[in-house]
Amino acid sequence: MQVTLTVNGEQMSADVEPRVLLVHFIRDHLGLTGTHWGCDTSNCGACVVSMDGVPVKSCTVLAAMADGRTIETVEGMETADGLHPIQKGFMECHGLQCGFCTPGMMITSKWLLENNSKPSEHDIREAISGQLCRCTGYDNIVKSIQWAAENGTGGEYPESAGEPAGVQDESAEAVKA
Ligand code: FES
Ligand code: FES
After folding, report:
1. What separation in Å is there between the alpha carbon of 57 and the centre of ligand 1?
2. Domain boundaries, the chain
3. Mutate to test the pocket of ligand 2, among 36, 90, 102 (most ligand atoms within 8 A of CB)
4. Strand partners, 62
């Protein structure tokens, strides 16, 4: 079947089997290998991408379910001015070691700061609680997100009207618009 998505602002299509997962569609059919695949159990969160503005574990979504949706991956984070403040934060605060979890962590961080421009440490830890990092012990990831919250350009992270909902794990949840 033909699947068409808007990925990082560009419309992309591919002919895939209905059973293909979004993570494999992104990596193998679109060649965007910044999104990682780290487990078979929907636990690790290395595969997190933004779908219609909400972080989802792309291993829990069929590519067919994402047809017509808007996807952002780590490759789309960089701005016209260079690295996104979150990318700078991870660089400044050593928020990564091997880097395997980093793309997903940054996608979730971006969503968090778009919805809560002044997150507490608890807010940050809650937002990334569905994602595993096997290297850093999380402290430097939290500091990186705090750095981005403090150093993002004015107006980039508007105040949220509500609480962030966290990374969506379930396929049914993931396709809710
Ligand atoms: Fe581990 Fe998706 S690959 S949660
Ligand atoms: Fe290695 Fe997070 S930096 S898993």
Report:
1. 6
2. 2-75
3. 102
4. 21
CA dihedral 166, 167, 171, 177 (to 10 degrees): 60
CATH 3.10.20.30 fits 2-75, yes or no: yes
Question: How far is C-alpha 37 from the geometric centre of its chain's CA atoms?
Answer: 13
Q: Which atom of ligand 1 is nearest to the CA of 58?
A: 2
- What confidence tier does 152 reach under pLDDT thresholds 50, 70, 90? confident
C-alpha span between 34 and 27 (Å, rounded): 8
Q: Model-level pTM greater than 0.85? A: yes
DSSP 8-state code for residue 27: I
26-47 tens-digit pLDDT: 999 999 999 999 998 999 999 9
Q: Is residue 69's pLDDT more than 70?
A: yes
